[in-house]
Amino acid sequence: MRYCFLFLALLFGAAPIHAQQPTGVEAIDTPNDSGGSITVTWARAELPDGAVYKLAVGESEHGPFHPINRSEVNLQSTDPGTFGHGDETHHRVFAKITEYADLADPSNRLPIENGKTYYVRVNAQLPSGETLPFAIASATASENFFNWSKGNNFVIGTVFSLIILGGIILAQKRDLFIRRIAGLEALDEALGRATEMGKPVLFAHGLHPMGSVSTIAAINVLSRVANRTAEFNTELRVANNDPIVMAVSREVVKESYLNAGRPDAYSEDMVFMVATEQFSYAAALDGMMVRDRPATNILMGYFYAESLLLAETGASIGAIQIAGTDSYTQLPFFITTCDYTLMGEELYAASAYLSREPKLLGSLKGQDIGKAVLLIAMILGTLLATVFDFDTLTHVFSAD
User: Is 145 left (phi over 0), alpha (psi -120 to 50) or beta?
Assistant: First the structure.
């Protein structure tokens, strides 16, 4: 009986150790990379606290094996771009190996070379220091010409590009409908009022540099405003807080006056630098509004806390104010203090709306169709994932 109990103790004591041994070990060339890396995977096992996996690399199946000191072991589900989204990814772990220690000098790291076969040894080390039996797998690193994990992005980008191209072709054949934007419709009225009153038009950019999308959109609106003030022979003043934006604005205004047939009416003093600091810029513009009392204020671009200071001062002098910004934190202030406000993407659409250029109109329509497609996919994906537990569509639009 004593021997029977001893046999059972050895049997059940060995079972957890055997369960902790790495099983299903496979080594592959790391996909979708530029080479210099191999990936080893194995079945997930429950290890006791303090136990770790030990990896080593050798150029021969029989060694010697070089230790890997800083290998990160993660579940395959954490890297869906490489391993996909299947249920099995929750039950397997992986480690990517790019270098290993030199046995002669452990501080020296040897890189994984392309075209060379490496043997990876995987075993588990218990807190007591005991090392369990190991498994070995081999792989050869190579350079991949395509990153297939981004294939969905390529397909989606291509489809949307074709939609925009189709919109441009359609816009060249017939006039496309764009819903009425009140702020842009009132632009000529506001400029006409300034002309009748013999007062200037003040145009203020936001505080973003020239690389900002909102600043580029504001420059496009400025081109239209300058063209109209040239035709109406109305004084135009363009205030800037960035020297590069000022230089671009000068060229745009000059070209607009030239296209309107009034190059003699253009003066470089129309476009000027106010201040580079936020509240110095706001104080200078407020003083200019109070002294010169412009009939029309046009505030276009990205604004911060100075938005309410400018808009309230403009409202106090009775000026018609047209504002446009993609800063959602400042929109409430513009809406309450300005006569017309372009909200968000209305600012981006302003150039297409005003010029009716087929390329701009077609691009705008194509983007709207693309947004509609994304909205439909979002609703459909939500329904499929929540009602039918089918989440494949959500993976199609994932970044990886």
Answer: alpha
